[in-house]
Amino acid sequence: MSFRFYTNTISQASKSVAAGIFITGLLLIGFGFLIYVLKEIFAILAAIVFSVAGAGCMITAIKIFLAQRKLDKINSDDSEAYRENVNIHIEEHHGE
Fold this sequence. Notes:
The protein has 96 residues and is mostly helical.
């Protein structure tokens, strides 16, 4: 008579996890082999990805610089430029 400390569902789950890890390992070996064989293509793809990412960073930085320049110009020229068409009314009550 043997005692089982696990159920059939745990056994099935561990088989599923093992199968997933095995498939992931095969995919990683396949990608590694493809990169080894097709070095030039992957180098070109990596260069394209890095160039596009760099251009995106530059464009974002330029937009931030221009927005900051515009804000600095507004703050230095006229302190009420951002209050265009805004009127502030204060009612004064004299001790009635």
